[in-house]
Design goal:
This protein has a single domain (about 1-305), classed as Alpha/Beta hydrolase fold, catalytic domain (Rossmann fold), CATH 3.40.50.1820. About 35% of the residues lie in helices and about 20% in strands. The chain has eleven helices and eleven strands. The chain has helices spanning about 10-20, 80, 85-95, 120-135, 155-165, 205-210, 210-215, 220-225, 240-255, 270-285, 300-305, and strands spanning about 1-5, 30-40, 45-50, 65-70, 100-105, 145-150, 170-175, 225-235, 260-265, 290, 295. It has a nine-stranded mixed sheet, sandwiched between helices. It has a two-stranded antiparallel ribbon with strand order 10-11. Helix 3 (about 85-95) packs across helix 10.
Amino acid sequence: MKAVSRSIAVLGCLCALVLPGVAQAAGHSRVECSTLQSRILARSVPYCVLLPPSYSRDKARRYPVAYYLHGLGDNEQSLINLGGWPLYDRLLSEKKIGEFAVVAPAGFASFYINSRDGKFRYEDFFIEEFLPAMEKKYRIGTTASQRGIMGISMGGFGALHYAFKYPEKFSAVSANMPALFEQLPRELTQDWQIEVFGNPPDVAFFDRNSPFQLAHTASVAALRRMTIYFDCGAQDRYGFNTGTADMDKLLTQRGVAHEEHIYSGGHDWQFVLQHFAASLEAQSKGLGAMQDGAKLNGDAVRQNHDRRR
């Protein structure tokens, strides 16, 4: 691991300008950014980690963790730069979430899976290298009950892919405007310049990696153990609102408790910032994050599941 941590406190101040009404309070959470040298990808992978306020003080405590996957065209710093950091602190101050770490790796244009040609094995990197490296470096959860996954757009695809493929590794999954489509769009390699699914796109390969296929084949008992949240804008320019509604139907048919919303809005950061709080709250509940020094009890978590569809 490359020890080139850098402070981005200045960016934290800028975040407050991006999201009106959210102040960056001194002494609250802090962010570290560094890189991990990957053997599997044969390159360094940047990442940022948001650490909760008490992390530096409570040296004996191991914290739940949510892995955040960014969208296409963004990077590991997007959550920090575009308003997620001060929102996290605000929710903490309002006691709407408990303390947990957030780890955001660079996902490039991978959709967080292994590429069709086998040349860019991002999924193998994430599962085999990245998770163990973060758990070694930071005092964060190493079991499913303390590990969540979340994402935006392409990252929402990745988050649902990982949660449904590896339900034994995560207790919560949340996604804002996830890139959900049951059929592979023709414009994938043309307009989006995405070749992870093959060029030309390999429909069978896409289907094997699709969150829909994984949600259809995963153990219902395993899925029911997770807190599941996702939303999308009704005016999403990529039509991901249709995929979101279809995922809602699939999980409902399988009897899997979840929370799904189609809100007014498009596919942009304005939509994300309007609804990202719900994604963080879902992570906090699913992880049983600590509030006021007391761990959320099982009854509260179960009641939350019962309210979902």
